[in-house]
Amino acid sequence: MTAWKKGVRPDPQPCREQDVGRFEVTQRDGQARLGRLHTKHGVLETPALLPVVNPNIRTIEPRVMWDTYGIQALITNSYIIWKHEALRNAATADGVHALLDYPGVIMTDSGTFQSYVYGDVEVGIDEIVRFQRSIGVDIATMLDVFTRPDMSEEEVDAAVRETAQRAEQSLLASEDTMLNGPIQGGLFRHLRHISARLMGTHPFAVHPIGGIVPVMEQQRYKDYAKIMMATVPLLPADRPVHMFGCGHPMLFPMSIALGADLFDSAAYALFARDGRLLTPWGTERIAELVDWPLLMPCVASLTPEDVRALPSEEKERTLAHYNLEVTLAELARCKQAVRDGTIWQLAEQRSHQHPALREAFLWLTTSPSVDRNLRPERFYTDRDAARDTGSDQGMWEDAWDWVVWSQQTPRSGGVQWGGDDTFVRPHIVKARRMLHTRWEPQQNTEAVVVFHGIRGPYRERLGDVLEWLAHTCPHVQPLILSPLGLVPAALEDLNPFAHLDAPQWVLRHEPEPAWMASELMRLGLTGQPVSTVDVNGPGLKQRLSEALLAADQEADVHRGLSGEHQTQARHALRVEQVVAKQMVLLNTSRNVAASIASECTFVTNREGRVKNVNNADGLHLFSPRLRDGGMSLANGGATALLKARTEAVPSTVSAAEWRGHAHSGPAVVVVDTDAEPFVRKGRNVFHGFVIGCDPWLSPGEACLIVNQNNTLLGHGIAQCTADEMRTFTKGIAVKTRGGLEG
Ligand code: GUN
Asked: For residue 363, is it within any domain?
């Protein structure tokens, strides 16, 4: 959004004709996304809050919303306009934008909510959609059937099917107007599934999640989270998800982390009417306040007492401004968190501010696939209490997978420790899954030594020891105990394992036998003797010697290495690092990784850190990255990886499927002939030019770009999952990092 001078904000530019209704994602953090929805009244940047404007009671003028607050979209009710003759005549004559004096995007609702509040509405299914189109709304809503949380399964089932039945005729009536296809289903997970599937087959522009107002009013936030997890993963990924009636800033971080793009709020005005203030941690009453919970621009020169003394209409308007400002500020904070890759952390922090939200957050992280052995048992007391009982508990695995596999890892920068919640952040769970499913130990591993007791980076303290070990006991696997799990020493600098910003007692925690056993099992290291070495303090060599003895390895640790042996050992460690990183980051088997790295040479910087990895012919394969411990692919590496691939090139974009593809190499993306010359020149791959891709494509991971003849065109970083690749028609699919001229 560009800046404008106060009071002179220009009207929006319509998007290109062919782009109307298209949605593109410009940035993401897991399932949270920043997007752009293209409309005739400008591009709506998401996540966005659409303030509810009651055309009869305009607490804050829509023009003020546009000019002062830069609000790009609002929502009003077409049923109210339709029912009131004066409003209807004005809207029919001049359009809804003139009626409201608002130049931005206008969404309208259909009267469904009125039917929930007052009983039936007397408008036809086509009639209300046709009316919305006739008054020029940008995004209309069909007349769906509201599902309340107290309805029986039969009632909800009937409402879901009736809503789906109305879809086709509503879409016909909407013609070229974008239409909302609401998802109903009450509290029934399978009915939310059915609703998402049925509605998703029709060409709706946006999918609001309906029937959640009473859930929010009753502060049933765990049910709210369940509704999101039951619905969003099943919707076509290229359509914005709107949380119908959700405008409380407290719910924004969690909702956005779970894929919400749009919110609408009457709360700013309704709460103002009875003297309540919205805050990111709940609601407060002005009657009891001496100071503002947050000092917002509209009350900068007023105390709560001053506002209480205002005439009631002015007081209501001031509080509505206050609520809107707080709501917009929290939304801005969430958007920045998505850019910074910290939206889950923000949801985690906010969850502590309300018991019901905390319960919801704990429930989200109770999936059976969250590995229980990550932390000591006490960690699970709260989560076990929040866990569902009975048969329901295993059913959320897919939804949790959907959250986890969309995360980008490794990331730059430190991981801020925030208590035990840290260990179930989805990007950390993904990093562990990548390590556990992809890394393979050497076949001839005879023993394992676990170094512990220090914080990263480990190389300064351990460099010499690891060189000595590599030379003297090449069949001993060195591991490092990080608070996020046991990691092979070759991955000692990999984010997040090496980058936890935490108190000393977290970083130096002692190896616990049960935890260690399960970690070793996950790494495929079972059956070998294991010993531990505390790295702290003097006498490290002696402790290592005892540890090796305990692991049936005899070696004289006091005998140093000759210069030549040291050079050989250093080389071997560097090779092992390239092998380990290929396995974990590029999904190769150890065999493939080792053959690619077999005769490689290293270009180092002045500190002796590897800058480039080249093959025997001097061709650039990889570049290790300092900032996150990752390893960037170069053209030579991409060529070698494609050569090693045994599977056929994907002929279609299949549904995302992450499990079961370990060691198959980086995902391949097949582009059409139009895109070929651009990719070869290093340009990005755009949605719409992709013919096929592997189901394990994951945002942030390297991928190979080929044509239909399996000729390598380039390589890059995937921006999306395979499911997203199937649906999106706009935006960047792969950020190309290297192109191969033909
Ligand atoms: N506003 C709040 N909830 C709903 C809903 O479920 N459907 C519609 N159409 N509008 C709503």
From this structure: no
C-alpha to C-alpha distance for 238 and 474, rounded to whole angstroms: 50
H helix runs in 439-480, sequence order: 459-472
- Per-residue pLDDT tens over the stretch 624-673: 999 999 999 999 999 999 999 999 999 999 899 988 899 999 999 999 99
Closest-CA residue, ligand 1 atom 7, reads 210
Report the C-alpha gap between 622 and 624 in whole angstroms: 7
Torsion over CA: 21, 25, 30, 32 (sign)? negative
Nearest CA to ligand 1 atom 5: 210
Q: Two tokens at 700?
A: 């942030």
Say if 489 falls within a structural domain. yes
> Which ligand 1 atom lies nearest to the CA of residue 141?
9
Structure confidence at residue 391 as a pLDDT band (50, 70, 90): low
Number of domains in the chain: 3
Question: Residue 541's pLDDT is what?
Answer: 86
Q: What are phi and psi of 337, to 5 degrees?
A: -65, -35
Whether the per-residue pLDDT at 538 is higher than 90: the answer is no
Cα distance between residue 233 and residue 609, in whole Å: 42
Residues 106 and 199 in one domain: yes
* Strand duo 685-686 + 241-243: pairing: unpaired
* Sign of torsion over alpha carbons 701, 706, 712, 716: negative
CA-CA distance, 177 to 203, in Å (whole number)?
11
* Model confidence, pTM: 0.95
Domain-terminating residue out of 345, 376, 399:
345
- Let me know: does 555 contact 473? Beta carbons within 8 Å: yes
Q: How far is the CA of 114 from the centre of ligand 1 (A)?
A: 9
**Which one, of 27, 701, 737, 34, lies nearest residue 408 by Cα?**
701
Residue 640 lies in a domain: no
- Indicate the helix (H) or strand (E) that contains 228: helix 221-231
Q: 725 lies in which domain range?
A: 645-739
231 and 322 in a common domain: yes
Residues 214 and 105 in one domain: yes
Together in a domain, 619 and 650:
no
Q: Are residues 163 and 238 in the same domain?
A: yes
Same-domain check for residues 585 and 662: no
125 CA from centroid of ligand 1 (Å)? 15
Same domain, 323 and 202: yes
What is the spatial distance between Cα 152 and Cα 455, in angstroms, rounded to a whole number?
55
| Position 686 pLDDT exceeds 60 | yes
Q: Residue 742: what pLDDT?
A: 77
Q: Is residue 238 among the annotated active site residues? A: no
Position 130, amino acid? R
pLDDT-derived band at 514, boundaries 50, 70, 90: confident
Q: How far is CA 629 from CA 455, 487, 496, in A?
A: 15, 13, 9
Query: What is the atom index within ligand 1 of the atom nearest the CA of 182?
Result: 7
Task: State the average pLDDT over residues 23-48.
Answer: 98
Backbone angles phi, psi at 294, to 5 degrees: -140, 135
Residue 632 lies in a domain: no
Domain shared by 223 and 329, yes or no: yes
By DSSP bridging, strand 530-534 and strand 447-452 are: parallel
